[in-house]
Every structure is written in C-alpha cells, then in structure tokens.
Amino acid sequence: MTTPTVPTTLAPPPRFSHRSLPEYVGILLVLGLVISSLMATAPALDKLSRGIARLFAPSGMLMQMFPPDFTRIVPIGWKLLETLQMAVAGCFLGLILAVPFAILATDRLSPHPILRQIARAVIALFRTVPDLVWAIIFIIIVGLGPAAGVMAIMVDKIGFAGRFFAEAMEETDVGPQDALRAIGASRMGMIVSAVFPACLPSFTATSLFALEKSVRGSAALGLVGAGGIGVDLKVAFDLFNYDEALAIILLMLALVIAVEQGSGWIRKKLI
Amino acid sequence: MNAHLAPKASQAGSTQVGPVLVVDGLIKDFDGRVVLDGLQFTLAPGQSTALIGANGSGKSTLLKCLIRLIEPSAGEIHMLGRDVCALSPRDLRAFRAQVGIVWQRHNLVPRLSVLSNVIHGVQARMSGPRAWFQALAPAAVRSEAMACLDRVGLADRASARVDSLSGGQQQRVAIARMLMQRPAFILADEPDASLDPQTGEEVMALLLSLVRENGLSLLMISHRLEHTLEFSDRILGLAQGRIALDLPTAQADAAGLRRFFDHQEPA
Ligand SMILES: Nc1ncnc2c1ncn2[C@@H]1O[C@H](COP(=O)(O)OP(=O)(O)OP(=O)(O)O)[C@@H](O)[C@H]1O
Ligand SMILES: [Mg+2]
C-alpha cells in the first residue's frame, strides 16, 4: 500500500497574490527607471548599424587588424612580463596587507568595535573605488610607470581579499578559538593557530581569484599610464596600428587564460 | 617524564592542604532571570566530583563562572588558592592556564596534526610562534606533548590529521592538549555527550585515572547516571539554582539521583 493521500476540500491558493498600492507604485517606478535609462543611453539603432558597416569596410578597423602583426613580439613580450610582474607584486602586497585589515574587521577577533568599524570602512572604500581611479591617484603620487600600477593593484586587492578573508574568519567554527581563549592563549596565538588553519582553503581560493583579477586588471592599467602592456595597446590604437593592437590583445588573452588555467588547476588540487 | 604526569606518590612533598575550590554565595542571573541562586560548596583536592542536574539547571553556567568565562553576578570563588573574582585580566589569564577544560565538543583544529593541536596547550604559559605549530616548537615542548599523547594512548597518531581520527580519539587528543597546560584542576562539561556509550566510558575512565594516578582534581558534568555513579567520589546535584544534593558517591543510590536526570525540573 502506498501512503494514503488525505482528501482535502481546500482549493489551491490563487496564482498571483494581491498587491497593495505601495507595491504597484514600486513596480511602476522600477519600470520607469529601466525604460528611461534605455532611452537616454542605449545607442540608436541606425548609428549602431552604420558603425558596424564602417568596421567591416576595407579601410575599417576590423579589416586593418588582420593579419595581426607580431613583428614587435620581443618588446611586447617584455611588456607582457612587466604586466604579469605588476600583477604578482601588487597582488602579493595586497594579500599580505589584507590579512591585518581582515582581522581588524572580524567581529570576534577585532580588539575594539571602533577599530572594526574603521577597518570595514577602509575595506569598503578600497573595494568601491575602481582600480583605474586608484591608478590615476597613484600616478599623481609616484608618477607614471609600473609603481603606480602596483600600488593600484595592491589597494584594490586589500579591498577584495580583505572582505573575503574577513568573511571566512567570521564563518569558521568558534569552538577551537574559545577553547584557546579559555586556557589563556594570546589573541595572536589564537588567530594563527586556530583561525588561520581553518581558513586556509578559503584564503587560498580567494588569493588565486585575486591573482586572476590582478592580471586582468593590470593589462588595463597601462591605458592610464600606470605601466604594463596597456601603454603599448593605447599607443597602437592611437597610431592606427590596428594589426599590432590585435597582436597585443591576443597575447594579453593568452596570458589571462594561462593564469586562469593555472590557478584553476591549483584550486582543484587543494580541494 | 613530566612532573605533572608523574604518579602522585612522587609528589609527596607538594600535597596541597585545604580545599582546592571554595564557592560561597555564588549568584548568576541573565537579565534578571536567576540561574544560580547563592551556591555554596567546597571541594577537596584529588577528588572526582560529578555535577548533575536537569537540562537548563545551570551546570554549564556554573562551570563557566568558576573561571569567569561567564562573569558571576555576585559571590566568592576561591580556586587553587586564588580569589578568582578579584583577578585582573592579566592574572586571570595566568590563572586559567592552570585550569584544564574538557568540552562536550573536542574543539580541536581539524586541519592540523594531532601533535600541533596538543602543542597548542602550551599557549597557556608560552606565546609566540613556538607555540603555534609542532614544526616550530622547541624540542622540550615536542617531547612533553608526546608524553601527554602517550598518557591518553595516542602517541602513535601524533602526525595524523585530527579530522582523520574517530570521535573518541579526538576527545582524547583534547585531553592531551589539556594535560599540556599542566593543569591542577580539570573542569569537564559532558565530555562523554557526543560519544557512543563504550567510547564515552573510556574517556571518563581516562579522566578518573588522572585523578587517581596523577592527583588532579576533577569537577565534571555528566548526563549519564551510570557514569556519575562509576566515575565520581562525590555527587553535587543542582536544582532551582541551589545545591539540592551533596553526598559521597558510595552512599548514592540510583533511584535518588534519577530526578536530576529528568528532562524537566521536578514539579
Ligand atoms: N549567555 C546566556 N544568556 C542568557 N541565558 C543563558 C545564557 N547561558 C545560559 N543561559 C540560561 O541559563 C540556564 C542554564 O543554562 P546551562 O547551559 O547552564 O544549563 P545546563 O544545566 O548546562 O543544561 P544542559 O543540561 O542542557 O547542558 C538556561 O535556562 C539557559 O537558557
Ligand atoms: Mg550544559
């Protein structure tokens, strides 16, 4: 015998529940926002089609791009290496500095609520301001070149990793921490011997994502003059060397894919 | 061999005179709800005392008050010759180092090795990287940790990861970590609760042997009537925030204790 179904006289509930007036107003507002935004900023269809036609014209950019020009591969290769070095250096500094910020931002580990609020505000600020803006700020401080790019990546990574490190520490089992606190262990001892080991897988995953993000970001930083391959890309576009631009884009793509594959492989090994 | 693990016969000169714990007028309320209502009792050293009481009667609260993991609302506590309630934060840390706690959950760091976890116990008296991981620990600390592991019968699993051990083995590692503190007093909050009856019994026997062979004092909460009768010298029963029962285990009978194991307070 299967489980007997209990006969019921109750009708199923209506498909759509009734909305109150404020809910209708809210829906209308959202719709209005979307439509007005599209009207104000989306490209006009005729402009778009003319632009695409121009792209494919014999003198258009797309045609000029082929075949990609790899004659300057050696200097471009060196700039690509510089880009990777910027990413690695900035990411490394950012990850190291993200740890103390994350500790200060974690409820249970922060020495004082006010410090916690400050750390959270700093992390939020570092996250919210885009890395290109940081690059412009650091160019003003340290001048054009890779140093500004490294600083920009570092600050961006403090924001990125600081948040995820703090989240991971917030979520770990508090039992081992409390047990060490109860025997009179120092805060530092508790953090390093109980919290870090528990967070290690999550920290590693976050760090690898941060590295991928840094490599992608570092390619763009050169566009504003903060070092790396982006400078060459901008110059190639400015001089209408579209075939060299394509070569640079392809090499950047190869670098990003290589880093993503590598970090994906490490991540899989660790889990 | 470590002094604190040596048989108590070898410690003849250092026998502690007087009680190891004096609780007087201990009151604890949570926002006006009184959980402990003027407790008064004294424990002699080198004994195993079982604390029993229905769910929510305040057993865990009492244990935590004793080392001020929860601040008592009023009353006096003297443990190991210290006026616990008067300790400064700094002295409190030094005092807690002498009190070993066995929790219901083992509270070890699962991803680390057994040896590293045992070495964490040394943080009670030593700070810095040497106390964080077994690889950084001085030779003396490592060999003391091995002795503690040997005491709980797990010296051969020193390099295993904690999360590869069984529940009973993990609880024994937690006891080894506690021994690493060189405690004089052990508090145990249902150390057998998350273990099957057989393993729970082994853990209780191990704790009792620390009392019998190493001269430590033990105050343990047990939710199993058989364990209370088998592994204690004295029984304290908690009800309505007061000590409602206090007698040597030898004089206790199962029927009289049963009301402390009911899931509701007796009417
Ligand atoms: N931090 C706290 N804040 C408020 N109330 C608490 C707190 N800790 C414990 N209590 C209350 O104090 C009472 C005693 O709790 P306690 O955990 O000491 O009981 P117990 O005897 O250990 O029970 P059990 O057998 O379930 O472990 C309970 O009613 C509990 O709700
Ligand atoms: Mg309890």
Q: Can you walk through the features of this model?
A:
The complex is a heterodimer of chains A (271) and B (267). Chain A is mainly α. Helix content of chain A is 76%, strand content 0%. Chain A has a single domain, classed as MetI-like fold. Chain A is built from 11 helices and no strands. Chain A is extended and about 70 Å long. In chain B, helix 4 packs across helix 5 (167-180). Chain B starts with 20 loop residues before the first strand and ends in a 10-residue tail after the last helix. Mean pLDDT of chain B is 88; it is low at 9-14 and 263-267. Classes of the chains: A mainly alpha (271), B alpha/beta (267). The interface between A and B is medium-sized, with 19 and 33 residues. Adenosine-5'-triphosphate (ATP) binds next to helix 1 of chain B. Residues 30, 35, 53, 55-61 of chain B line the site of adenosine-5'-triphosphate.
